[in-house]
Prior knowledge:
Elements: H1 3-23, H2 29-43, E1 45-48, E2 51-54, E3 57-62, H3 64-71, H4 75-92, E4 95-96, E5 101-106
Parallel strand pairs: 2-4, 3-5
Antiparallel strand pairs: 1-2
Helix pairs in contact: 2-4
Amino acid sequence: MGILDNLERGLERVVNGAFAKTFRSGLQPVEITAALRRELDTKAAVVSRDRILVPNNFTVRLAPDDYERMKAMGATLTDELIRLVTKHAATQHYQFAGGIKVALRSDPSLAVG
């Protein structure tokens, strides 16, 4: 990761956070994808020069309203999230210890968006 990548991610968090708090329009699948990519990048563990392991089991906690909207998309959403996580891992030369799982869970303590 270069300095520009870190700067870009920082700006993305600030802008996304400000808009999410202002508009409260509900979570979008692209935001889940971005969060999963961040999780891979921050939890990557260098095992050897040629091997970087990343998590393969994800639980995405969502506000109840967001959860209902995402759940309505069914397996298509989770399949697409897995595909995008796999693609990001390939571009970063990450490896998984096993099959990838993404589970969506409702969390009443979270606000919409």
